Amino acid sequence: MSTRGIVFFDIDGTLVPSMSSSSFLAKRFGHARVLDAAEQRYAEGELTNEEVSVIDAEGWRGTPMSTVAAWLEELPLIAGIDAVVAWCVQHDVEPVLASLAWQPVADAIAKRHGLTADGGPRVRVVGSDYDGTVAEHFNEYDKRDRALQFAAEHGVSIDHCCAIGDSRSDLPLFAAVPTSLALNAGAAARAAASAAVDTKTCATSSPGSRRGKPPSTDLGRSSAQTTGSRSLRCVHT
């Protein structure tokens, strides 16, 4: 299969709509209150992503990899992912996860729904257990750079790429691709994106999809009148 375009999907707040994946795991690790406070400070610009990662990683200490993998099988995701992935496969568009979520989260979602995991921060593993320290930091600029590298390595022009996300961690990637969609997003992402939409499903059955346009295009077009954004011309082929 020759890849004709790429859609980069954020995870937390986008594919995981009700909470961050780190918060989901922190409830099981037992440090949810500490992490929630740190994530709020990140959202307000008081902490860096690296500082939040250090706080979060400590809670993983001594937990087996297999336990985390089992927990992630229950991670709640937005409806419609399989329909979007099916459309992508049918039209030679690569659905890629581009996120600041921990790599095991991206790996779990990729395995469940057939997306491609590409990058993310890592908690160090000793033997088969997490040791509570950060093995690799990954911020919003790393996310952008990894996405652009992925496109280049797969011979896909950036003109045939788009990004879907919800928060300030998506802004550098939004600025790097020609079109972007703010999905259930905050004010910063809405202002930066080509279009915005609020929805409980990332799939759509509008006529645009049946004409061979990606689902994100339909979402962008349907929201253009209410957001004042131009239509999302994502992954034209």
From TrEMBL:
The superkingdom of the source organism is Bacteria
List compositional bias (Polar residues) regions by residue number: 219-230
Q: Which Pfam families match?
A: HAD
Q: Where are the transmembrane segments?
A: none
Stretches the record annotates as Disordered = 199-237
Spell out the family assignment given in the record's similarity comment: Belongs to the HAD-like hydrolase superfamily. SerB family.
Q: Indicate what this protein is called per its UniProt record.
A: Phosphoserine phosphatase
What phylogenetic lineage does the species belong to? Bacteria, Bacillati, Actinomycetota, Actinomycetes, Micrococcales
